[in-house]
Amino acid sequence: MAMDRSLLSHYLGIAPSSREEGVLRLLLETAIRTVDAAEGSVLAYDRDANDLRFVMIANGPGSLIGQRVPIGAGLTGLAALTHEVQIGAPTFKTVDDANNATGVEGEPSAVIAAPMVSGDQLIGVLTAVRFKAGHRFTTDDGRAYGNFATVAALMLDQHNRLRELAGGADELTTAGGYGPEEARILNALATVARTRPDRLPRLAQLFEQMADIAV
Amino acid sequence: MSDLWLKQAAETPFDAIATGPLEDVDVAVIDSGVDATHPDLAGRVVSQWTVEEAEGRLTAIELETGTNNDTFGHGTAVAGIIARIAPNARIHDIRVLDARNRGDPTASLVAFRHVLSKRHRLINMSLAIPASQREPLYKLCESAYQRNQIVVAAKRNVPVTDEGLPAEFSSVISIDNHAVPEMGLRFIDQGLIEFATLGNELTVPAPGGGYTVKTGTSFATPTVTGMCCLFLGRWPALRQFELKTILKARAHVAL
């Protein structure tokens, strides 16, 4: 499993070693096993550049991480623009070749591209790839992969909403491998320290009292 | 339509209709564009348009006919299926998917207004439009129904918040993808989606002249558009509800 933590943080709002990163990895691995794919990946939507970037790869070449995929062509771009699961195969010269699924060694024989969408907003695309000639994905494969993409999008959306509520929308707490709850508390404290430092002594007192009660 | 017509329409094999006398039917394909240079589509695409921003607003701009207007392959596959089934289809390509407009859903509304104004008899909509556009899209589909323009629309492959728009509207013919024989039809008893046909592993034309294999509701939908094109070519006065009646009758006959 290859990933770039800074890309995950930048595009998906996931802190390194957080529960969300683990859940996304688990979803991707489960998704590719469910549809019997050889490889899978998470591509994040780069709103500024209006393209997609590989941020997580399962069973595939780690060198893909960070590479950009244009949104104006291909199955992945189509899934991104239509917000629909797309199931495809390579292009062949003739109808017979297409029917016989004459494969090329090392080239994908089938692809699923499933969009991760929150409301009308694109978060990214989950892809699955097979390489064995004639091994195409079915409608059921597409639906299953699409369901995983939906759950991934929901998880990321909820995570980012919580982060916004905690006042940490602008910056992500990544230091020390804190879990999301710790990150929320630290983000809230950072906000107070930045905007109302005069309240910090009172907050310290409250935390001490809470610790006495909780422990 | 008399009962005899209905019986004929419901029972005549598609091949027999396709090889009989047919009037031309204008079919709009609102999609990712069409490669009109593909051998399967040579001479079949009679106009090509793209919806792009011009002077600060999205508008339908006419392109030179006979060009490759598709970078995704989706619309070429859809048009190829219609052209294969219905020799009387005059295909109008309206491209709404473009990286530059970031898949702006209002591009599809602009395309809909365009095809309504052109009075194209059949409109294939294999793309689902986001729910945020439900209200204006509903009005456009009602307008199409009132003008006797027939919209055939795809169900979403993975319905989460909706089954697919405009497929949910009663003013359109809505299509799912089921494992039925090629050119077979299934009537769906319950829910918002009415009919299903084969959309699995269909060999279709790809941009640039080759062929690929596609799966999904997007590719079941043009099969029904092609069927409707044949019916309208043979019985031009048919209205939308009559087409649904014929499709339902054929679903019972075929399965």
Fold-level CATH name of the largest domain in chain A: Beta-Lactamase
Q: How many helical stretches of chain A?
A: 7
- Seen as an oligomer or otherwise, the chain set is heterodimer
Percent helix range of chain A: 40-55%
Biggest interface, residues from each chain: A-B, 40 and 37 residues
* Class by alpha and beta content of chain B: alpha/beta
CATH topology assignment of chain B: Rossmann fold
Question: Quick one: CATH superfamily of chain B?
Answer: Peptidase S8/S53 domain
Number of helices of chain B: 7
Shape-level CATH architecture of the largest domain in chain A = 2-Layer Sandwich
What's the overall geometry of chain A?
elongated
* N-to-C CA distance of chain B: 24 Å
Range of helix content of chain B:
25-40%
What is the gyration radius of chain B calculated from CA atoms? 17 Å
Fraction in beta strands of chain A: 15-25%
What's the overall geometry of chain B? Answer: globular
**End-to-end span of chain A in angstroms?**
38 Å
**Whole-number total of structural domains of chain B:** 1
Give the SSE order of chain B as H and E letters. HHEEEHEHEHEEEEEEHH
Describe the structure.
The complex is a heterodimer of chains A (215) and B (255). Chain A has 215 residues and is an alpha+beta fold. Chain A has two domains: 2-165, GAF domain (Beta-Lactamase, 2-Layer Sandwich); 175-214, no CATH class. Helices cover 45% and strands 20% of the residues of chain A. Chain A contains seven helices and seven strands, in the order βααβββαβαββααα. Chain A has helices spanning 5-12, 19-34, 74-82, 95-100, 139-165, 180-195, 200-214; strands at residues 2-3, 39-46, 51-58, 68-70, 86-88, 110-118, 121-130. In chain A, strands 1, 2, 3, 4, 5, 6 and 7 form a seven-stranded antiparallel sheet that branches. In chain A, helix 2 (19-34) packs antiparallel against helix 5. Chain A is elongated and about 75 Å long. Chain B is α/β, with parallel strands linked by helices and 255 residues long. Chain B has one domain (3-254): Peptidase S8/S53 domain (Rossmann fold), CATH 3.40.50. Chain B contains seven helices and eleven strands. Chain B has helices spanning 3-11, 14-19, 74-85, 106-118, 134-146, 217-234, 240-254; strands at residues 25-31, 45-54, 57-63, 89-95, 122-125, 150-154, 173-177, 186-187, 195-197, 202-205, 211-214. In chain B, the strands form two sheets. In chain B, strands 3-2-4-1-5-6-7-9-8 form a nine-stranded mixed sheet, with helices on both faces. In chain B, strand 10 (202-205) and strand 11 form a beta hairpin. Chain B is globular and about 55 Å long. The model of chain B has no long low-confidence stretch (mean pLDDT 94). At the A-B interface, helix 3, strand 5, helix 4 and helix 5 of A face strand 11 of B.
